[in-house]
Amino acid sequence: MPDPRTVSHRSAARRPAARRPPRLRRLPETRPGTIMRLVKAAIANAEVSLQGRGATRWRNWAGTQACSPLQIHRPRTEDEIAAIVGSAAIVGERVKAVGSGHSFNGVALTDGHLLDLRDYARLLRANRSTLRATAQSGMTLARFSRRLFPRGLAMEDMGDIAYQTVAGAIATGTHGTGLRYGCLSTQVVGMRLVTADGSVVECSTEEDPEIFRAARVGVGALGVISTATFRLEPAFNLHAREQMLPLEEVIDALDEHVDQNQHFEFFWTPGSRYAFTKRNNRTARPAQSLAAWRRFRDDVLLANLAGNAAVQVGRVAPAAGRRMRRLIPSATREDYVDRSYLVFTSERKVRFHEMEYFIPREAAREAIGRVRALIERSEQPISMPIEVRFAAADDIPLSMCEGRATCSIAVHMRRHEPYEQYFAAVEAVMRDYDGRPHWGKLHFQRASTLRPLYPQWDRFQQARARVDPNGTFSNEYLDRVLGPVRG
Ligand SMILES: Cc1cc2nc3c(=O)[nH]c(=O)nc-3n(C[C@H](O)[C@H](O)[C@H](O)COP(=O)(O)OP(=O)(O)OC[C@H]3O[C@@H](n4cnc5c(N)ncnc54)[C@H](O)[C@@H]3O)c2cc1C
After folding, report:
1. Atom 52 of ligand 1, residue of closest alpha carbon
2. Residue 219 and residue 404: Cα distance in Å, rounded?
3. What does the DSSP 8-state code read for residue 475?
4. Which of 23, 119, 279, 461 has a CA-to-CA distance to 372 between 20 and 30 Å?
5. pLDDT, tens digit, 9 for 90 and up, residues 244-267
6. Residues in Cβ contact with 125 at an 8 Å cutoff, skipping those fewer than 6 apart
7. What residue spans define the domains of the chain?
8. Which H/E stretch holds residue 87?
9. What is the reported pTM?
10. Thinking of the domain 237-438, which architecture would CATH place it in?
11. CATH architecture of 123-234+448-481
């Protein structure tokens, strides 16, 4: 059966406006030549929009956020993206590009036009001598990495998973771990951005630097990222050491772990006396894949089968549940070498809610202790771990790591479990450390409480007002966390 969502794409492709490529420009500039093109596209688009309302539904990966866009488009070219955006804006309809739907909050939702970029996902260039590669924005990080590696290139750091698209990861400041490495947006050196009037802005540190600076963590508010160019490393293998250690030991030696390893993180499942630590460092040793073990570790162990079982037992026999959690796990140790992207990322099968906060690195130990105490006092069984990571400071206005070396603390709850009270209590702790929430995860903050946390907030808003003066790329979440566009 044909995917009903492709209908939109075909209708977009038929529009006369799509035939002419959008002109590259530097802002600000007027382009009288494009007005007729956009009017024609708007008329065509408005007709389809009216038919399309309510007929389509979009959900995020976790199945916890959903929307009914006016229409879902699947463009294949930058021209088509530009025509859809320009024509929607002209009739006052909103537009939202989505990636793989791996955000936990409403950041990707829209009641306007939704651009699903899965068919706009090619690697355009990869150059081993300049260590640069350019991808279309709908390409997933998994595919990007798989295509780069045989070309002798790799991303310097990645998050836990690689399902995200290039643009989705950039938009929310997605990060991995390691104090010498910034969030993934710090690896971006150039972008092509489709702005609200349907024109394309090419930006980098040299060209339109203010737009570039803001769009590196743009939360989807500055336009549709068409392509992104990354600064890369020569392809490398990582030596992974994964070890269960007593939690107290990990916390006592936290600074050593973080400073002595390129990429250090740990997970702690409430109720357990152990932490699952991961230490990844570059190595010249050849890869020796351990796929079967990794699957077990990620899907069974890390997905908290054991933790969950203890919670289930705890519901009927609290003392037995507590005993089980104290015993999880026995001494597990893993040591292997593999391609960087296979070590950085793993599969996630269990669906859940997540909140993640970014605090100054120096506050890590105290804040972890307070979260632990809060969990231990709570009567609610917490079946999923907290995850602790680190990242370098950067200068991107809305990056969660802006201006400070950072520790991130993430809390999780299974999809069908109530999370609000637990997350709100953890958020209250994080606010004592000027914690900044991940833009793609759950939190309870608003523009008025977020603004004081970001010294370059107004700079971001000025860039936003230049490229999206009428809020074409806004949605309910952005209205809450960024407020209205102010010229
Ligand atoms: C299992 C799991 C593990 C995760 N692990 C990590 C992790 O290790 N580190 C971390 O930091 N985060 C992590 N996340 C969060 C995730 O990286 C972010 O939410 C990311 O934004 C998701 O990318 P996506 O492609 O799914 O984008 P979506 O969730 O679909 O969209 C996110 C935002 O990007 C915007 N966007 C998408 N495409 C474009 C475009 N072309 N132009 C402009 N804006 C665009 C959307 O409008 C939206 O605002 C994880 C999430 C899950 C579900």
Report:
1. 102
2. 20
3. -
4. 279
5. 999 999 999 999 999 999 999 999
6. 132, 133, 134, 229
7. 6-116, 123-234+448-481, 237-438
8. helix 78-90
9. 0.87
10. 3-Layer(aba) Sandwich (3.40)
11. 2-Layer Sandwich (3.30)
Distance from residue 451's CA to the centre of ligand 1 (Å)? 22
pLDDT digits (tens, 9 = 90+) for 124-145: 999 999 999 999 999 999 999 9
* Domain 6-116 of CATH type 3.30.43.10: yes
Ligand 1 proximal residues by C-beta, below 6 Å: 61, 96-103, 107-108, 117, 137, 159-161, 164-165, 167-169, 171-172, 174-175, 219-220, 224-225, 348, 438, 440
Which are the contacts of 64, defined by CB distance < 8 A and separation ≥ 6? Answer: 104, 351, 353, 415
Task: Give the atom of ligand 1 at the shortest distance from the alpha carbon of 158.
Answer: 8
Tokens of 85: 């955006």
Give per-residue pLDDT as tens, 314-366. 445 555 555 555 555 444 558 999 999 999 999 888 899 999 999 999 999 99
The atom number, within ligand 1, closest to the CA of 348 reads 1
The predicted model gives 165-192 an average pLDDT of 98
Name the 3-class secondary structure at 25.
strand
Chain centre to alpha carbon of residue 144: 15
In degrees, to the nearest 5, what angle opens at C-alpha 407 toward C-alphas 436 and 98?
Answer: 55
> How far is 74 from 210, CA to CA, in rounded Å?
30
Distances (CA, A) of 224 to 115, 117, 187, 430: 9, 10, 19, 32
Identity at 201, one-letter amino acid code: V
**Which one of 58, 60, 65, 103 would you pick to mutate in the ligand 1 pocket, going by the greatest count of ligand atoms within 8 A of its CB?**
103
Report which residue type is found at 168: G
Do residues 179 and 160 make contact, with C-beta atoms less than 8 angstroms apart? no
Backbone φ/ψ region at 211: left (φ over 0), alpha (ψ -120 to 50), beta: alpha
Q: How many helices (DSSP H) and strands (DSSP E) are in the chain?
A: 17, 21
